[in-house]
Amino acid sequence: MPGIRPWKMAAGAAAISLLVAGCGGGDSDDASANSNTIVIGISEPEHLLPTNATDDSGSQVLSSLFYPLVEFNAQQEPVEVAAASITPDKANRVWTIKLKPGFTFHNGEPVTAQNYIDAWNYGAYGPNAQTGGYFFERIDGYADLNPLDPDKDGPQKPPAPKADTLSGLEKVNDLTFTVKLSAPFSSFKSVLGYSVFHPLPKAAFSKPGVIAEGFEDQIIGNGPFKLKGKWEHDNEVVVEKVSDFKGQVPKIDGITWKIYQDDQTQYADLVSGNVDVQMSIPIEALSKASADLGTRFQMSENSGFDFIGFPTYEKDFAKPEVRKAISMAINREEISDQIFLGSRVPAKSFVSPVVRGYRENICGEACEYNPKKAKDLYDKNGGPSEIKITYNVDGGHKAWVDATCNQIKASLGVNCTGSPEPKFSVLQQKARAHEPIGLIRLGWIMDYPLMENYLGPLYSTNGSSNHYGWSNSTFDQLIKQGSQAHTPQAAIKKWQQAEDILVQEMPVIPLRFMQNVYGYSEKVQNVQMDLFKKVDLYEIETIA
Amino acid sequence: MTDIKATMDALPGLDHRAPLLQIDDLHVEFRTRDGVAKAVNGASFWLSPGETLAILGESGCGKSVTAQAIMGILESPPGHITAGEIRYRGVDLLKLPEVQRRKVRANRIAMIFQDALSALNPVYTVGFQLAELFRVHRGMSRSDARNRAVDLLDQVKIPGARSRVNDYPHQFSGGMRQRVMIAMALALDPEVLIADEPTTALDVTVQAQIMGLLAELQRQRNMGLILITHDMGVVADVADRISVMYAGRVVEEAPVHDIYARPGHPYTRALLESIPRLDLKGRQLNVIRGLPPALTDIPRGCAFNPRCRYAKDPCRQDPAPPAYAIAPHRTARCHFFREVLGE
Amino acid sequence: MSDANLITVAEAPDVSGRSRSLAGDAWADLRRNKIFWISAVLVVVILLMAFVPSLFTSADPGACALSNKHKGPSGGAIFGYDFQGCDVFARTIYGTRASIEVGILSTLMAGLLGLIFGLSAGYFGGTTDAVLSRVTDIMLGVPFLLGAVVFSGRLSGSEDDGVWAVTLTLGVLTWTSAARVMRSSVIAVKSQDYVAAGRMLGASPGRLMFRHILPNSMASFIVVLTILLGTNIAAEATLSYLGVGLKGDAVSWGLQIAEAQDYARIAAHPLIWPSVFLAATVLAFIMLGDAIRDAFDPKLR
Amino acid sequence: MFRYIVRRLLQMILTFFGATFVVFALMFANQDDPIQALVGEKQASDSLRAALTERYHLDEGFLTQYWYYMKGLLTGDLGKSLTGRDISEMLADAWPVTIRLALLAVLIAAAIAVTTGVYAGIRRGGLFDNGTLLMTLLLLAMPIVVLAPLAQLVFAMELRWFPATTTKDATPYELLLPAIVLATTVIATQLRVTRTSVVENLRADYVRTARAKGLAPRRVTWVHVLRNSLIPVITLIGVDLGVLMSGAIVTEEVFNIPGVGFNLARGIRTEDGPLVVGFVSVLVIIFLVVNLAVDLLYAALDPRIRYE
């Protein structure tokens, strides 16, 4: 072989591979360039099967593909949409749901009561491991589908479920079914607004109780838009208008849900006009957002709530006075202004302003910034000399935790450090194991617009997100009484009494209420976002 | 080939009647962080066609530097030619632009290096390295150049040249490698061949073969050969004339037989006396006292004076001794050459 | 050649006539090298900043007030304030220590591991080489992120600032490149004549390895290590970005840079200053490494 | 040669199992609560926990889990990720764009590093040499978490030379900016090694010979010196190719490229063992094949090396 050849061969091979690489990429279709369709940025949905899609992105995409039973009006009261009527019996225990006639799935199947029953049974059945399964827990028979693990995380496996369908669901006729709850609940209609309660067509099931292979990637709904092609994972989900939709008809012809991995990246595309709506603009971009977007940069309220939980099981934080003192050491307004640039609102209550029954500034003095009083109270009650706030780094909490710590340091003269954990699950696990991780950064977004959806999961003894171990039997009692009250008004009374206990006890420090911070391109108008962080797909329109 | 030689004659000032190669008062110094090392301090000699001139001296006396200066491959920096002339057929090579200088190399003046293994590029076949000359200088096609390479290997008597042309340097034995070097040097029919210690790295029998080959090829082509060596045995056999260098100067220049019979410089004398001889077997060998001087610090006057048994006051004073013409075609730079010759 | 006088004139090896030791030579060389002095002074200043930060600033790096957010330079804070309203100059000075500790220690660790693996693999060859090279391959196959998350997560105690965890993590994850370079240099050097000569003279394997092979294999190795020093100081920032870096109220250039990067469009100064210090440090160490290598490498003289 | 390749392939199999074992062990060690990671910040219900634990053998010991995985792997079944997607399908989605990105980055890096490295080596100690040293150091000192967003900010958002983001169907032009960013992470080392190697080779005797042959300096450098100097650089480039494929995590995230790095990062974040091990397995195979290719190329570049 002549001396020079191998090297030339190598160079040639490299050049060829580059050429091949060059041929690999095609241009993305430019169909949306001047048509009546828009691009909305989302994250990769975890799932698109309604009972498994509990993340923001998944339920946002579902809102285009499905038509819900109820939606909420400006007063956060549920209003029938796909349902003709939803009526309880006297005891608020058996609810009768009548569907509007004439609706079909995208594959032409008519929407019937059975479609709801099948979908809900599938979602509630424990072995199907649907992340939204817990929404069905109020329905009679849920316990039989989800036997409890007798020894929690121990070696014993939970017994097999006794049933595979919810005994509380009963079909009356093709357009009517009843839901029997295991306990009376006057506000059940509000719960039905969540995306897990969407129906599934017969085509979804390969046999009863089994979802067909590949259905999720080509999901079929009953909504104003249908899937165009397949769900292209990590890339996009394209939907187009259903031609003869019976319900409210959107003004746009289609949506490309473009999947982003990072908010800052998405913002770069929003500014460059590659995406029409960004639903959450990252705080790092906020100070330039007005300049970049002008009036196309908007905020509106949503249900998010930031707070810090105390490890009330630790002696250092056992006294409510110490907890109040720390709360008073924090200047909420300054953090809202400087860190969040006004995109979050100081919180001085324990439930979000978006739910009925919210009372402004219920927390009173304990949530007012008063460093002098805070220090007196703190010193008098022997607060610890070291405070640690643990947070998960994957959620972008470092900036405000550090700022909060700096304020506590300055106000109380104690040392305060922010302690990062890589993931929320680690933080949660350490909290549950009562490891000494100090104060815990927490947050909550409601599933349905009721006070109870904050008070129950966050503060009651067995609350699913009570990670900090506070327990008060009077409080638990009041929550239960509220849920079983005959009217929503009566329920709110009880729940407000419960909130009063929180004010005295301060098991957590309310910090901020979140807002939708969104922006849109020059191509669209009438962009509105609701409490569930979703874009209103019926109002949005393109500018011709 | 002749037509190419003809275009080469376009060298400005080329005069076929002028001496083949003439070096005049060449000065080379190395400017390093440790100071200026004066490697060559006024070397002068000439070379005629068909003649073999041996340049003799210890390591560091400036032989190789002189050779590299003639070739124009002195590493610069740190090497600088500060004065002197190198005339090839009347053309001062030092004044030529680099592009023309490059055409002189290998075409008119070629060089053989001491260690053929490191002097050949390890990652190319010898065929490639030979053919490269024809391709670059003659613009030959790949296959023509290769055929010429095979011819050359044949000429230097490498067995199985046609297959060995595709071998890499490390696949040859030491002697064969040196033959490849010779082939490379002769490829473009140069008129001057500089061989820098061509046989030092080889064992004795191979040395003789290589020297024989060189002599044979020189005769065939009527080349001028400059043989750089510190081996007086080699010199005696093949050289016509000898230039002895010490500390960057030619201290004695003479036809080979004269020098062996009657050295005219104490250094030459000392070199000869340090050779063990059969007829003097049993006597103590005369070794030269001391070490050659540091080139950064050459003694005043005659550079050899600290080691010289003839040295007297004038030897320690500047200027250095001039080249005394002690016989026709014979010079020595020693104030006391008569005493030296007389002994 | 009738009289066969083939014995040659005695060769004198040392042209210059000096006869100092290698270290002496190197020092003589370094003393005259401007680059050496510049980088050495820089390194000394950096080390002073790392271990006696109070020499440079009297400000408290932990005293931050949001009201100063992104303010420009003023009286005490000559570099201005960062996003949290902290004094950028004070934080940059105090950040030196963690950055330098992480950088130097992790590079030393990677260097040591690389040296042991590379030298043994290259020197012994055969099965040893195969086994060690396979181990290196396996290590290279582990994604940096996974290794970082796992090692840092497991190594860090909950109380300390995480310097040791970060150091060990970076050391364990970065030695492979040093090992590979060392191995190939050793293989190249091993076949050189002087090693064969040493072996024939009966030098022990240890002597061969450390007196003959190692010094002659160091050039590329040192280059890789000096670069590693720079990347490791910077990698600390990446680990912090992933949430497995330094913890608590630790101050480091990496943390500063990672944090300021988000606001580069609004205020560049909190990003620029620690970056300048980081670049200057890396530059100083690389120049110092180059100068020392050049001084000790006889081939370059 | 043939025997050498066979032996290397056998060693590759061992390495492959070693690497998957190590990664599996690391994932196992890192597993806190994958189910919670899947659910997010709300509490996972008991029945969900039980069902997922059963489905993914999460309550089994490490060796049992590894055995299940290997069994699947050997029958060509890479399994499903914890989110229920087929891992083989995810691999098919993610690999092409990452391979194109990494190749482009390596080519950019090698082209720049070799040309600049050679010139810096020739003009050792000169302005060009020191200038490139300074430039590479500045790049070196910039963590990729800073460099990638800054590049996007400056070149995409402000100057608009490149698109700010791309997709998995990106054209080479769209991949150019991320590839350049990625290349900067390896350019410094490649350049320095090239430079050192060139400096050493320029002193070699064969360079003197080449000059004595009357060759132009350009030919001496690019034909004689370069090929000798490339030998250590090629090894480095081979390693870098592997590093770039797994190391593109930040770059892929910033430029929205749903490739291997992104999937790996997500898998690690969500403690998705099967996903991570699946991706790493392929990564290791590619890495080993590239290494073998590099070693063979090594022999082609340096005839003194013979494999048997």
UniProtKB/TrEMBL annotation, chain B:
Entry-linked InterPro entries: AAA+_ATPase (IPR003593), ABC_Ni/Peptide_Import (IPR050388), ABC_transporter-like_ATP-bd (IPR003439), ABC_transporter-like_CS (IPR017871), Oligopep_ABC_C (IPR013563), P-loop_NTPase (IPR027417)
UniProt keywords, alphabetically: ATP-binding, Cell membrane, Membrane, Nucleotide-binding, Transport
ABC transporter domain: residues covered: 21-272
Name of one Pfam family that matches: oligo_HPY
GO molecular function, one term: ATP binding
Cellular compartment(s): Cell membrane
Coiled-coil stretches noted in the UniProt entry, renumbered to this chain: none
Membrane topology term: Peripheral membrane protein
PANTHER family in UniProt: DIPEPTIDE TRANSPORT ATP-BINDING PROTEIN DPPD, OLIGOPEPTIDE TRANSPORT ATP-BINDING PROTEIN APPD
NCBIfam families: oligo_HPY
Record family assignment: Belongs to the ABC transporter superfamily.
Protein's UniProt name: ABC transporter ATP-binding protein
Automatic annotation (TrEMBL), chain C:
Cellular location(s): Cell membrane
SUPFAM superfamilies: MetI-like
UniProt KW keywords: Cell membrane, Membrane, Transmembrane, Transmembrane helix, Transport
Membrane-related topology note: Multi-pass membrane protein
Main location: membrane
One family name in Pfam for this protein: OppC_N
The protein, known as: ABC transporter permease
Transmembrane intervals: 35-56, 104-126, 138-156, 162-182, 213-235, 271-292
InterPro entries linked: BP-dependent_transpt_permease, MetI-like, MetI-like_sf, OppC_N
Biological source species: Actinoplanes flavus
PANTHER family on file: ABC TRANSPORTER PERMEASE PROTEIN, OLIGOPEPTIDE TRANSPORT SYSTEM PERMEASE PROTEIN APPC
Domain ABC transmembrane type-1, first and last residues per copy: 96-289
Similarity field: Belongs to the binding-protein-dependent transport system permease family.
From TrEMBL, chain D:
UniProt cross-references to InterPro entries, sorted A to Z: BPD_transp_1_N, MetI-like, MetI-like_sf
Compartment list: Cell membrane
Membrane topology: Multi-pass membrane protein
Keyword Transmembrane: yes
Spans traversing the lipid bilayer: 12-29, 99-122, 134-155, 175-193, 229-250, 275-301
UniProt superkingdom: Bacteria
One Pfam family hit: BPD_transp_1_N
Membership in a protein family: Belongs to the binding-protein-dependent transport system permease family.
Protein name stated in the entry: ABC transporter permease
UniProt lineage: Bacteria, Bacillati, Actinomycetota, Actinomycetes, Micromonosporales
